[in-house]
Structures are given as structure tokens and as C-alpha cells.
Protein: diguanylate cyclase
Amino acid sequence: MRIIQDSLRKKQSLLASAAITCLLVCIALFFLYQRALSQVSEGVNTLQNQMMTIFNDNELMAEAAGVRYQQISRHELCGDADIFHPRDTAWGINADPDTLAPDRGALVTRTPEYSARCIYVAAEYIRAKVKALNPDLHDIHRYIIANDGRWFYWFNPADSIPFSFSTSQMARDPQRFFSEPEMFYDRVLQKGMRKKSLSSTRLYADKITGDRAYSVVSYIYDLSEGEPSNHIIGYLAYDLSRPELEYMLREAFNGKVPEGLILGYESRQSGEVLCIVNNCRWLDDAHSHPVSRRYEIKYALPSWLFISQDRNALGVLALAPVLLILLFMLIRYHLNQADLRFYRDPLTGCFTRNIFTLIQQRSLPFMTVILFDCNKFKAINDSYGHQAGDRALQAIADCMLNDVRANDDWVIRSGGDEFVVLLSDTDIAHAHMVAQRIAASIAVYPFSPQGHPVPLSVSWGVAPCLDSLDAAIQQADAQMYQMKKRRGERR
Structure:
């Protein structure tokens, strides 16, 4: 049987499948995006905790270095003066770029003075203790600077290679980079880490990495005086450059930084941003996590950037056309099946009278009407029962359906034993031929209710559809009635 209104169902199916696909894709993308936002929030919290841990570690190491310095300097345990070796116009300990010992720190000083020897021995002790107690500690760019910049000690000796007193602005003027230290006991007993971390430097150009950086700074206090003071031996600094911050970011996200994340460190005083991931000019609606009173982490996860870079989101978009096609086919099939259930006669498989309304409303094309009426159908029902009558109707309908074009013509059960056939692109002469062929097929159909052969036959009339369907059916009905009269049959 032909599909009744497939073009309409195609449009409806396309609209419905597009709407459902968009809804499902949006739900999937929303779920992925919300999950990513949750991961970002958790990761940034971890990163913030890492920053606080770095500062706390720096504070503890500075305090320990000050205590150790005081111990060894008081008891003259700072080693011999011959541990210094010339380095250009300065002096160094393990500072020759060609013979660096990686398991020791490096020191460069303007003069081979006693305090430089003491800080080297004290720092080496702290360095060894930290390594022994924390073997997995990622500790790259940490160093100590004298309060007046006259000597530098690096925990990682390779960091000393590019250093020169003649080009170092930090050596020339440490106070330009470092804040004035507060009193020792005020510093030690201060619980507010964010206030303590005001000692961090401003953003500057790091000569080691060649990138923008800032340093977490703690003070190594001079504890030799009897009264509390803010006098310091030097500054313990930990450089946080872009590579170091990128490493920390990966650690915070367990090696899987969400796609589309934009993150940077912003100076709360100047507004300058050290960008770590993606383009920080897109940090319009950014979230912020304060690291100190000087810096905060600013981050955002724009939905458009996440969708364009996340593999799962791209996979959802790639599957959307497939889903659209599958839904289109499924919805179209079910709509057509619903049409067939509504317009199809369950007994004969022909269309029901309901189809007339659709044909007239939609002006569906056809040219000729054939009206069939079963001959002596009441006698079959009376003699052999209604089941036999139903089988007779099924046989007649099968003959009609088999002798017309399935996708062009219409076979309609318009009454109990009356059928209408609408022919497309068929003139009257050919319509008569179709009617005769159908009648001949019905006449030779083997029909034997209860084992008794019963001949089947139909009367028919043909009319062109010129004005209206109702008029054509009435004209065909009149012709059929004349045929019945000639055969001596009642309607």
C-alpha cells in the first residue's frame, strides 16, 4: 500500500528529529560542560593549596636556615676560606659552570667573606635535610639573596650559570624587589598566610627562564641580637615562572588540564596578568581565587572554547548528524505507520472512507474513478456466515490491490462491499481496461467456503474526475447501477 502523505511526514520528521537532536546535544554538552566546571573548580582549589604549601614550606625553610646560620656562625663552623674559587670578578662555591656538582648548591659572592661561607654551610644543611625528608619534593628555582645583594645562593646550582653581578638588578638594588621585613616575632606568630605573603615580589622578567615571573619571599632573620628586630641575613625566594606554574597546574589536575581552560595569575595592585593557559585576554567573566593580598588566580572556562577543544564535546557534535538521520528515519516510519493504522481497513488492507477527507483537503492527484460493488455478497453471508463474507471481501480486495499501481493509485473500501479505485494519470479508456482486468481476476479467484465453490463477481462503473470527487463517484455509481440492472442484480 502506498505511503499516504510522506512529503508532509518528511517535513514533520525533519523538524521533530532536528528539535530532539538539538535538545539531546545541548543536554550532553551541558552535562560535559558542568562536569568540566566542577573539575576546574576542584583543580583550582588544589592549585591554590599548592601555592599556600609552597609559601609555608618557604617560611619553614627560612626559619630553619636562620637558626642554623646562627648556630654555625656562633661556633665558627662555617668552614675554611679556601672553599671559594674565583668566578669572573666575583668568588664562588660550586659556581664554575663547567664543573657544577648537581648534588650541591651554588654560591656567588662579591668577596670571600665569612657570612657567605656561613650561609652556604647553613643552606647546604637545610637543602640536604629537605631532600632527605621530602624526596619527591619538586623544588627547582629556590635561592637566598643577602640583605644587600652582596651574595647569592642557589639550591639548584644550574640556576647560577646566567648570573652576573654586573647585569643583575636584584643584586644592585634588592629593596626594589623585596618588601621591608616586619619584626621577627610578628612574622612568626602571624597566622594570616595571605597577609604574610605580601612579601612576594612584583612580576618581573626572569633571566633563568626568559619569561615573566614572580617570587615567593620569606625572610631569614638575624637572631644574633638580644632584642627582637626586623634585621635579616637575607631573603629566601622561590621563583614562580610560567613553566613552573604550568607544571603546578598539571599536577593540580592530575596531568589532565580541561580543554578550553583560561588561567592566569593577576597582580591585585597593578592588574598585570601572568597568563598560564590559553589567551588571558578572554578572561572577561573570570572567577578568582586569592593566593595572597598581592596575587590571585583568575580563570574561566568559556563554553564555546570548551566545546571547540574538548574531545568528548567534539564527539557529541560529530555524532549529531548520525542521530539526526536515525531519528528522522524512525519518526518518519512511525508517522507513516500511524497514518496507515488510521486510514487502513484492517480486514481488507485497503484505505477506509477517512482517506476521502485527506484527498480533498490536500488535492491529491488522480484522474479517473472506478466504483466496484460485490455481486450477491448478501447471499454469501446468509449461506456461509460472516466469516466467509469477510474472506470474500479479502479476496476481492487482494485482486484490486494486485492489479493497480501500489504507489500511484488508491484502493478504498467505501462501504460494506463497495470499493472505490482512484487512478492517477489514466484516461477513461485505460480505466475501463483496469476495471475489466480486476473483474476478470475476481471471477477466476478460487473461493470455496466450507468446501463449496462459490463464484465471485463485481459490478463496476467508471467516471472521469472533472469537477469534484463526489460528482465523479456519483457518476461511476450510476454506471455501476446500470451494469447491475443488465445483470438482473440488486444493489
